[in-house]
Amino acid sequence: MSGMLTGALIGLAMGLVGFFAMRTLARRVELPETKQVLNIAAIVDLALFPVLGAFVGGLATGD
After folding, report:
1. pLDDT recorded at residue 1
2. From 56's CA, which of 3, 4, 6, 41 has a CA 20 to 30 Å away?
3. Residue 18 in 3-state DSSP?
4. Spatial distance between the Cα atoms of 42 and 18, rounded to a whole number of angstroms
5. Alpha-carbon torsion 41, 3, 13, 18, what sign?
6. How confident is the model at residue 56 (pLDDT cuts 50, 70, 90)?
7. Cα-based distances in Å from 44 to 15, 58, 60
8. Other CB atoms closer than 10 Å to residue 20's CB: what's the count?
9. For the chain, how big is the Rg over CA atoms in Å?
10. Cα separation, 52 vs 13, whole angstroms
């Protein structure tokens, strides 16, 4: 498995953990603006971590 793929998979795992943590937190807050911001941040987190993981994995292994 290449470094980019490994980094992307690790980033996906971290993104999923962050996604579910922020969604759980968003359910607990009372302000609708805070809920909206946490939901948007969760989606961005889920999309960004695999990309960053692939980039860092490629840099670390020289791919």
Report:
1. 79
2. 41
3. helix
4. 7
5. negative
6. very high
7. 9, 21, 24
8. 12
9. 14
10. 12
